[in-house]
Amino acid sequence: MLWSDPENEPPEELRDMQHMLRRLSVLLAMAMVLAMIVLGLG
């Protein structure tokens, strides 16, 4: 890695978007598990 290479730091909006996507995927996974339980009980 050269000294002239840019920092390996993503911009602020990109990091915010990644956090939001991670939260959304966790919510989606929990919703799917809940749906499986409800369908299994029904």
List the helices and strands and how they pair.
Blueprint: H1 12-41
Biggest sheet overview: none
Structural shape: rod-shaped
Percent range of helical residues: over 70%
Structural class of the helices, strands and pairings? Answer: mainly alpha
Radius of gyration: 19 Å
How many distinct helices? 1
Quick one: how many beta strands? 0
Alpha carbon gap, first and last residue: 58 Å
Overview of the structural elements:
By secondary structure, this protein is mainly α. 71% of the residues lie in helices and 0% in strands. It contains 1 helix and no strands. Keywords: Membrane, Transmembrane, Transmembrane helix. It holds the Pfam family MmpB.
Which labels suit this protein?
transmembrane; 1 helix; membrane; MmpB-like; transmembrane helix
